[in-house]
Amino acid sequence: MSKRVALIIGHPDKESYNFAIAQAYKKAAEISGFEIQEIIIQDLHFNPNLQFGYRKRTELEPDLIKSQEILKWANHLVWIYPVWWGSVPAIMKGFLDRILLPGFAFSKKKDSLWWDKHFTNKTARLICTLDQPSWYYKWFYSSPSHKAMKKLTLNFIGVKKVRITTIGPIRLSKEKFRTKWLKKVEELGRLAK
Q: What is the dihedral of CA 37, 95, 42, 15, to 10 degrees?
């Protein structure tokens, strides 16, 4: 099966380094012949608030329906975002809340605490930027955003193989550092890893 890649960009600023990362990945993946579809969260028109929780359905806006189609189509999900306050940006959190719904990403089993996972045949890569060294984030803070995205979100819906690339510190980084990382991201894209 050929790799179909959904590239999901969670940074709200198109002039950010995250968008340079996304373009480096996309360009290399396309040159290698992989199919790519992008979801640029900040371009979507939707209410990020899951207004009624799961008590009552909030109708999906057209951009979220299209995003669900892309996630369903892909067999590899690449999430690119900055880590802010140990988590993902607010707009990305709202996107996750609104799109990974029961019936789409998972289904609750009747009279049970267990659930069926609907993303079992997919893999994922998280590419995250930090304003601190990645080793510091791991050893002093225990990587809370990585755990939330990998275990509590993607593993929850069935994505078992989730790899993480952490790039930091971005703040005060030099051109040489950023260029080196773009080359590494190109290699990930070339292999659609």
A: -80
| Domain CATH number, residue 92 | 3.40.50.360
Domain count, the chain: 1
User: What's the burial of 111, exposed, middle or buried (CB within 10 Å: 0-12/13-18/19+)?
Assistant: exposed
Band the pLDDT of 1: cuts 50, 70, 90.
low
The pLDDT of residue 57 is 84
pTM, two decimals, is 0.96
Strand partners, 167: 129
Query: DSSP letters along 73-103, please?
Result: H-SEEEEEEE-BTTB--HHHHHHHHHHS-BT
Beta-ladder partners of 5: 36, 76
Amino acid identity of residue 161, one-letter, is K
Of 184, 84, 66, which is closest to residue 144 (Cα–Cα)? 84
